[in-house]
Amino acid sequence: MSPDVIVIGAGAIGTSIAYQLAKAGLKVMVFDRGRVGGEATGASAGMIQLNPDRGTPPAYSSLGAESARLFTALAAELLERTGIDIGYRRASLLHVTLDEAEEAQLRAHRAWQLDQGMSVGWLDGAAAVDVEPALNPNVRAALLYQDHYQVVPRVLAQALARAATDLGAVVLEGASVDRLLTQGDRVVGVALGGETIRSPETIVATGAWASAWSDALRTPIPVRPVRGQMVALSTTATPLHHAVSSSDGYVLTKADGSTIVGTTVEEVGFDARPTAAGIARLLTLGPRLVPRLADATVSAAWAGLRPGTPDRLPLLGRPPGWGGIVLATGHFREGILLAPITGELVLDLLARRRPRLPIEAFDPGRFLVRAA
After folding, report:
1. DSSP structural state of residue 240
2. pLDDT in tens, 260-277
3. How many other β-carbons are positioned within 10 Å of the β-carbon of residue 135?
4. CB-based contact 187:324 (threshold 8 Å)
5. pLDDT tens digits for 273-317?
6. Distance between CA atoms of 200 and 186, rounded to whole angstroms?
7. Chain segment 187-237, per-residue pLDDT in tens
8. Burial of 263 by CB count in 10 Å (0-12 exposed, 13-18 middle, 19+ buried)?
9. What's the pLDDT tens digit per position in 5-56?
């Protein structure tokens, strides 16, 4: 196969891109050194949530809102095409506080979000416990977000990959791209071991590992790994009706009945180990928010490496001065949420049409300017 596009990375971002390109009739090859959805995607809780604050750039808020909107149709489409249910379900969110000072901050945050047109309710402590009886009775207040959802992240990536292959794409697991092939100021393909595969376009969707291509492109790609640890608990108690979050983390019940507690945010380099300290923190947090979890059984613990950037915004577009390559990385904790819109925007770029949303804020060249 001589592809029109090579996609490096088969997480939620890479598979979403592959699916949109294949659906548009392009010949696509996807390479991943591991398994589909095996890195940050598989480690995610899969929450589809919008919670911007005063510091969130409007372009980023618009990106998240549009991507969240796309999920309803995408879930139905993937189910019809592949028979795979990605677990898209409502997961209304209660963001709670047990702290008096933080209660005032929540009120101000809600007032700002209402001014932005968001739908967010206010519950005092008693009302919060009424709607979620498992909550710590010492909760002082909660923000209620009704229109939040969740998916099963690895299944999402697998469904996208399956849909892409059904449309003619080739998805290769355990295939590590060693280098980019360049010709002048263009990327013209990739090399894997002694094999070279040429293509007019290459998409880098390698998450926390994207910085590995900085030297080849002579361009700063300041994406770094940020570890997030999580634990899964097993309990015979009634499932939570809401996802429950706080400033320290969150708890939610998944479709399989497990309860997930997350997550840490750790700058430890490429170390994806769950640690005793991280797990201990989560096992303290879970019962603090939902006391009955003190009697739950720990069924699993894991960690993933999220792709962070200096300004916490993704890199989406062509590196300055280069043709034949697009970066789609740096989505940090929002890779699942932003997967649908990222796929559509990359298709817009390759089709040389105006992107459906402004993406100037995500231009990879912004870091080159700062470095200069």
Report:
1. P
2. 999 999 999 999 999 999
3. 23
4. yes
5. 999 999 999 999 999 999 999 999 999 999 999 999 999 999 999
6. 9
7. 999 999 889 999 999 999 999 999 999 999 999 999 999 999 999 999 988
8. buried
9. 999 999 999 999 999 999 999 999 999 999 999 999 999 999 999 999 999 9
Which of 24, 9, 1 is closest to 350 using CA atoms?
24
Sheet holding 47-48, edge to edge: 47-48, 149-150, 89-90
Task: Give the CATH fold of the 90-148+224-308 domain.
Answer: D-Amino Acid Oxidase; Chain A, domain 2 (3.30.9)
**Does the pLDDT value for residue 369 go beyond 60?**
no
The tokens of 337 are what?
A: 């949420």
Residue 286, classed as helix, strand or coil, is helix
Angle between helices 153-166 and 335-350 (to 10 degrees): 30
Query: Residue 237: what pLDDT?
Result: 85
**99-104 long-range contacts, CB within 8 A, separation 24+:** 99/140, 100/140, 102/247, 103/140, 103/141
CA 294 distance to own-chain centroid: 29
CATH class held by domain 5-84+152-222+310-371: alpha beta
Q: pTM for this one?
A: 0.96
Note whether 33 and 8 are within 8 A (CB).
no
One DSSP character per residue, 202-237 reads: EEE--GGGGGGGHHHHTS----EEEEEEEEEEE-SS
Where do the domains of the chain lie? 5-84+152-222+310-371, 90-148+224-308
- Least Cα distance to 95 among 317, 246, 309, 225 occurs for 246
Query: In terms of Cα–Cα distance, which of 248, 317, 256, 253 is closest to 284?
Result: 248
In degrees rounded to 5, what are phi and psi of residue 14?
Answer: -65, -40
Question: Quick one: CA dihedral 305, 309, 311, 314, positive or negative?
Answer: negative
Say if CB 309 and CB 247 are below 8 A apart.
no
C-beta of residue 59 within 8 angstroms of C-beta of residue 175? no
Q: Of the candidates 349, 21, 8, which has an alpha carbon nearest to the alpha carbon of residue 165?
A: 21
